[in-house]
Input
Amino acid sequence: MNKLVDMQEVLSQAKTLEEVQRFVEGLRDVYDLEHLVYHSVNCVGGQYAALTYSQDWVDRYIENDYARIDPVIQGCYQQFHPIDWKALDWSSKSARALLGEATEAGLGNQGFSVPIRGPSGQFALFTINHKCSDDTWSAFTNERIEDLILISHYLNEKALQIEGRPDRGPIRALSPREKDTLTLLATGANRANIADVLKISESTLRVYIEGARFKLGASNTTHAVALALTHGLIVV
Output
């Protein structure tokens, strides 16, 4: 099995938020990163975080309300797609000062964040951080972007499941073809290959994908795969 499948199996066994924290620490080590963060805020402001930053840095960040000026928070809140930190606007004096403090606190010079929008206005971020060159980081994120997006949604669903959130409706059963489609997507196959394996057209494949998304209440295809894995509807 590949790293992603291994980590999904580990996370599927988590029953408490403390186990989610240990999963985040393990995932950081698996990918040999400096830091890894999952942070969720629900519609009434309740927060939960599993992260590897030092407690001193977390306390300083909260005490100074750095979320108000953090380009990562501001940029991700306005977008739906993953963001490399180098693409954000760090030109203001306050943002540069924040970056300097973060570096002193042990954060790496590279960052990549996945915005997640969950049920009833929930907003979460999945972030990886490291110390390396721009070329090394670009190669790392380009090679693993699909895995990172999938694991971010899977992690979010697991945290919501453990917290017992009642705000997601019941999951509807998937058809055999919808299960086949999501299973193949979860293994990393592209749409053309999936259509070939299932002996259907790509337009028919889109119908199955959209049908699964609708039944699962997923915001996108990756989210649908994560939901199907979380609820045991598919196995990879």
In short: The first helix runs from residue 3 to 12. Strands lie at 35-41, 47-51, 83-84, 110-117, 123-130.
